[in-house]
Structure formats: C-alpha cells, structure tokens
Design a protein that fits this description.
Elements: E1 10-16, E2 22-23, E3 29-31, E4 40-46, E5 50-54, E6 59-62, E7 72-81, E8 85-88, E9 92-94, E10 98-109, E11 122-124, E12 127-129
Antiparallel strand pairs: 1-4, 2-3, 3-10, 4-10, 5-9, 5-12, 6-11, 7-8, 7-10
C-alpha cells in the first residue's frame, strides 16, 4: 500500500526582470502600463492552493534630485496560463495547478500641479507566492 500527500507549492522564476516606465502626456503619471512601457515578468509554477500578491510599496525607489514632490507608487499584476487574472492590486488565490505568466506593472502618480521631472526613476516590486 502506498500513501502520499502533495502540499501547496509555488516556484517563482523571474523571466524579464526589468520593466519600462514611460511618462504620460501630462507628466503626472509614470507607468509601465502606458504605450511604450513594459511589465516585468515572473513565471509561477504551482500545485494550486497558494496566494499570489505584491508588496504594496515598492522598495529601492530612486528619483532624480530635482523631483522633490511626493509620488504615489502603485504596483499591480495580471496572470495568464493555468489561471487568468485581470490586472489587480490585491492578493489572489491561485487554485489551478500549472504554470502562470505574471506581468508585474508599476505606476507612479503625482497630484495637483506636481509633475515628474527629467531624470532616471527606478523601483523594485516584490512578488510573493504563499
């Protein structure tokens, strides 16, 4: 007689580590979701029964010295493959076993009359599967 149990597992593989942020025409948004932008991509292989999420605040954010106004950074993701999930910012259950492609986006937003200034911007978004 044989018995066995398969626990919920999840493996993350970063397949495209660098997303591209582009500014909106008003310079009040900087996003990978805008035309010309590109998402970071992570492949997730799971047995199902796990939760996929992003850290709500990106880390290692760098902005040019001339950008002195606050920015609200919002990471989001969508999933295709064994399961399909439309772009979301909230934790989602991956119930289906298999491989999924997770497109990770980031949007920075300025308010009022504040705008993004010339220079290099970067941030790191953490993907979690638990």
């Amino acid at each position: 007689m044989f018995n066995g149990t398969v626990g919920a597992t999840c493996a993350l593989n970063i397949t495209s580590p660098t997303g591209v942020l582009v500014p909106s025409g008003t310079l009040q948004s900087l996003s990978s979701r805008l035309s010309g932008g590109a998402a970071g991509v992570v492949t997730v292989t799971t047995t199902g029964g796990v939760t996929l999420s992003l850290e709500p605040t990106p880390s290692a954010v760098t902005v040019p010295a001339g950008d002195t106004t606050s920015t609200v950074w919002t990471p989001s993701y969508s999933v295709t493959g064994a399961q399909t999930i439309a772009n979301t910012t909230t934790a989602t259950s991956l119930t289906a076993a298999g491989t999924n492609v997770v497109s990770v986006d980031l949007t920075g937003t300025k308010t009022g009359s504040n705008t993004f200034v010339s220079g290099a911007y970067s941030a790191t978004v953490t993907v979690k599967c638990e």
